[in-house]
Design brief:
Layout (H helix, E strand, L loop, with lengths): L1 H103 E10 L2 E10 L1
Length: 127
């Protein structure tokens, strides 16, 4: 009977030991899985941050391109308005000069080239 009790005790001890070993190996496996999951989450977070930065860089490039195009268009429009105003001023000035020359007096003149000299007669009549 003693051997039978000792066998039962040995079986219980072996079962307990195997249970401990299985629980320990499961715990180690769970810890390893947890470490891998943490690593994978950090890799995903880095990839997400890289994608976000790339999208932000692309967006800022596009925004700067839009701003530059808008500035060029505004500059072109301002230059066109300036040139139109300058042309209008030149037309007004030329008409004004013509008008003042017509209302101020009359300029008559004649010129002759003789040998190597120029003879110039100018007569200005003011009214």
């Amino acid at each position: 009977m003693d051997t039978q009790n000792s066998e039962k005790a040995a079986i219980k001890i072996q079962a307990w030991w195997r249970g401990n070993m299985v629980r320990r190996s499961l715990l180690h496996a769970a810890l390893r899985a947890w470490v891998i999951q943490c690593w994978w989450r950090s890799v995903q977070a880095k990839m997400l941050e890289q994608r976000r930065r790339l999208a932000l860089r692309l967006y800022t490039c596009q925004e700067w391109a839009v701003v530059k195009v808008q500035a060029q268009v505004r500059m072109w429009q301002a230059r066109r308005r300036f040139l139109q105003a300058r042309q209008a001023a030149c037309v007004i000035q030329s008409h004004w000069r013509w008008h003042t020359s017509q209302t101020r007096g009359l300029i008559r003149g004649r010129y002759e080239v003789k040998a190597s000299r120029l003879e110039l007669d100018i007569e200005i009549l003011l009214t």
